[in-house]
Amino acid sequence: MEFVDYYKVMGLEDDASADDIKRAYRKLARKYHPDVSKEEGSEARFKEVGEAYNVLKDPERRREYDELKQYQASGGGGFQPPPGWHSRESINPEDFAGAGGADFSDFFEQIFGSRFRQQGTAHTEQHFDARGQDIHSSLPISIHDAFKGATVELSLSTPTMHESGSIRNEQKKLKVKVPAGVTNGQKIRLRGQGGPGVGKGAAGDLYIEIQIREDDRFHLDGKDVSVSVPVTPWEAALGASIEVPTLDGAVKMTIPANATQGQRLRLKGRGLPGKVPGDQYAILSVIVPKAVTEEQKQAYQAMSELWSLDPRANDGGKS
């Protein structure tokens, strides 16, 4: 059996006020009343609206219905009332105007039917407990927040139980403590920050997936970090000691003699922190200076005479 969303039947949001419910019913009842409506299926629609209205207009009935809706949201699939479910309210079938006396939907019978069949018997209050649904969200952070850790504000919409018993989605802001060394896609769980529980059921949890934004300089691969480091031809040829940026500030790094374009030099433990910290890789980018002055041109000419270098010798004859 499918769960019937009485709010959708009446074209309302879950947090609709009592006045909203009354206005919606009056509008729909006029539209679908069998005596005036010429629309196909108007009688069935009129009964459906009447059933929805008489459940939602009463605070206790609405509370029970919202609890069941919350239970349904956490369970998924076809609807079945929780084990041991009985409506806590004695309901007079004659109250259900527009529903044809005792002509109720199967869904309604599943929820309140036992109370109709037990009119005049002792009222036994039974209830069920259900854990609130878990909520999933994402949180974008910078690579520097991932390295050092940070407290970041997250704004999201979560189900909230109100005094009337209705469950409404409301915007909530949370301070999320991001631990140092968190990786892209890692999830942080905040206990009890999910959907409200039903009865004595505990609230669900909030799962936050970390999304580390792209950085202009540093690039992330798991816990390893890479950065492009420009060097001059003579630094690459002769070797040099230069400063290299890391997420924890600049450090000295030795470039070996005869280093090549694209060569990866490892700075151990300079990636994201952790039990096993990541590494940082400095990727060399050899910058060839322009020959502008006559002296610079002569220097390049001297280099060409010193080295018998043909970089295209092994390209298979391709130009």
Shape-level CATH architecture of the largest domain: Orthogonal Bundle
Q: What portion of residues belong to β-strands?
A: 15-25%
Q: What is the radius of gyration?
A: 35 Å
CATH class of the largest domain: Mainly Alpha
Shape verdict: elongated
Give me the number of helical elements. 8
Sketch the topology as an H/E string, one letter per element: HHHHHEHEEEEEEHEEEEH
Distance between the termini: 72 Å
Number of strands: 11
Overall tally of structural domains: 3
Strand arrangement, largest sheet?
6-7-11-10
Round the mean pLDDT to the nearest integer and report it: 82
Which helices and strands occur, and which strands form pairs?
Layout: H1 6-9, H2 18-32, H3 42-56, H4 59-75, H5 106-117, E1 135-141, H6 143-148, E2 150-161, E3 167-178, E4 187-190, E5 206-212, E6 218-221, E7 224-231, H7 233-238, E8 240-244, E9 251-255, E10 264-267, E11 280-286, H8 294-306
Parallel strand pairs: 1-5, 7-11
Antiparallel strand pairs: 2-3, 4-5, 6-7, 8-9, 10-11
Helix pairs in contact: 2-3
